[in-house]
Amino acid sequence: QVQLVESGGGLVQPGGSLRLSCVASGAIFSMYAMGWYRQAPGSQRELVARIPSIGRSNYADSVKGRFTISRDNAKNTVYLQMNNLKSEDTAVYYCNALYGRSDAWGQGTQVTVSS
């Protein structure tokens, strides 16, 4: 029953940066593992980064060293800081919340990296 709303996407040049935000409501945020996924046209949705309620975050190899996932439990928000963006990062980015039998998704936000 958690609801997720992503924001922060847009058009950026290669090498630029964006910060995505995902605000959760209707749940106790700190209990959820949170993740960012992305889906490019004609491709399957793939994991970008995941941050559990307890433990280490993990990242797709393609974004390690460039992207950072973080969360602010007081604001019910998870972030994805994206630096040194590349054209292959172009996709719709989705926020995910997982706890027990609950598996929720946001509507997605478009990120386009182009000169």
Topology:
Elements: E1 3-7, E2 10-12, E3 18-25, E4 33-39, E5 46-51, E6 58-59, E7 67-72, E8 77-82, E9 91-99, E10 102-105, E11 109-113
Parallel strand pairs: 2-11
Antiparallel strand pairs: 1-3, 3-8, 4-5, 4-9, 5-6, 7-8, 9-10, 9-11
Characterization of this structure:
With 115 residues, this protein is mainly β. Helices cover 0% and strands 53% of the residues. The chain contains no helices and 11 strands. The chain has strands at residues 3-7, 10-12, 18-25, 33-39, 46-51, 58-59, 67-72, 77-82, 91-99, 102-105, 109-113. Strand 5 (46-51) and strand 6 (58-59) form a beta hairpin.
Quickly list its features.
single chain, 115 residues, 7-stranded mixed β-sheet, 4-stranded antiparallel β-sheet, 11 strands
Using only C-alpha atoms, the radius of gyration works out to 13 Å
Q: Using DSSP, what is the number of strands? A: 11
Class by alpha and beta content: mainly beta
Oligomer: single chain
What does the average pLDDT come to? 96
Helix fraction bin = under 10%
What global shape is seen?
globular
Q: What pattern of helices and strands is seen along the backbone? A: EEEEEEEEEEE
Largest sheet: number of strands, sense, barrel closure: 7 strands, mixed
Terminal CA distance? 40 Å
Strand content: over 45%
Question: Which ranges are low-confidence, i.e. pLDDT below 50, for 5 or more consecutive residues?
Answer: none
Number of helices: 0
